[in-house]
Design brief:
The protein is an alpha/beta fold and about 300 residues long. About 45% of the residues lie in helices and about 15% in strands. The chain has one domain: TIM Barrel (Alpha-Beta Barrel), CATH 3.20.20.330. The protein has helices at about 5, 20-25, 35-40, 40-55, 70, 80-95, 120-135, 150-165, 190-200, 215-225, 255-265, 280-295, and strands spanning about 15, 60, 100-105, 140-145, 170, 175, 180-185, 205-210, 230-235, 240-245, 245-250, 270-275.
């Protein structure tokens, strides 16, 4: 069964959780390139991916969030973008096996088009290299994530759709405003996001990072209303971050996510996973909650 067929089957699917936290726990140093580990320390990257599969995830992402040549050029690795992304997908594919799916992660380039220091063609080409390499490595879908600007997100979706056969997920990162609604740092609302990325070719849309599960319920409620037939994905943080003694902590425990998962399903989420601060224990708790919810339904 294809990834999209699974998503549209009516079953709520489980995605993975945070990656960066575990890379640092395994020794990634500040200023070190996470994507380089795909070739220098592949076993450690594999362990992270496998831990989420073992926790009950139906799909896992790839260690390629910062894998565009624009991000990699900070480490002198721009010319290795294809190599590092293909390796990322191959590692996650090995961990996923035949039963689970791999989502090829594409994050923002860090460039802002309206500043005029970069062209659309340059950004498109960077996303094209990344998407094609992730497909070559075995990804089953592309996830364009943590987006805040419509123009960049649309370019990433187009690059993936026009150069690979893979379905595309697109998630934005929203923040709650003083008015009580949600917008990205670039002023994009969920409504604006959906009206732009769906015509661009996104097959699944949603939200990641920036919010814990409770606020994600609000966002998914809006997206379900304006995109009733579109599968929705959520990668929630483990609550709002708290800085203590210079260290960022995420307060939401696995049990907290367990309790909130049914409400997220009822709001319309089709795929539920985690972002910053979430661990295999959080993903296992979400998986248990989904299983109980569907059993009682």
């Amino acid at each position: 069964m294809t990834f999209l067929a699974k998503v549209k089957s009516g079953k709520v699917l489980i995605s993975d959780g945070a990656w960066g936290t575990f890379l640092h726990e395994k020794g990634l140093q500040p200023g070190e390139c996470p994507e380089l580990w795909n070739v220098t320390r592949p076993d450690d990257v594999y362990d992270i991916a496998k831990s989420y599969i073992d926790a009950g995830a139906d799909m896992i992402e790839t260690n390629s969030f910062g894998g565009s040549r624009f991000k990699l050029e900070h480490y002198g690795l721009a010319d290795r973008a294809a190599e590092l992304n293909e390796a990322a997908a191959a590692i996650s594919k090995k961990a996923a096996g035949d039963a689970c799916n791999v989502l090829g992660s594409i994050g923002p380039t860090g460039k802002i088009l309206i500043m005029g220091d970069i062209t659309e063609d340059e950004i498109y080409d960077a996303f094209k290299i990344q998407a094609m390499a992730l497909a070559q490595g075995g990804a089953d879908a592309i996830v364009v994530e943590t987006m805040t600007a419509i123009d960049e997100a649309v370019l990433a979706i187009r690059a993936a759709k026009e150069n690979t056969p893979l379905p595309v997920i697109c998630t934005f990162t929203f923040e709650k405003t003083i008015e009580g609604d949600y917008k990205t740092m670039m002023g994009v609302s969920p409504e604006m996001m959906a009206s732009a990325v769906l015509p661009a070719g996104a097959d699944v849309i949603g939200a990641n990072c920036g919010n814990g599960m409770e606020r994600m319920i609000d966002i998914i409620t809006v997206l379900r209303r304006i995109a009733p037939g579109t599968p929705l994905l959520v990668h929630a943080n483990a609550g709002a971050p708290i800085v203590q003694k210079g260290k960022t902590l995420f307060p939401e425990k696995p049990q907290d996510m367990f309790k909130l998962t049914p409400r997220l399903i009822e709001a319309g989420a089709n795929i539920i996973g985690g972002c910053c601060g979430t661990t295999p224990a959080h993903i296992a708790a979400i998986a248990r909650a989904v299983k109980l919810y569907e059993k009682d339904k």
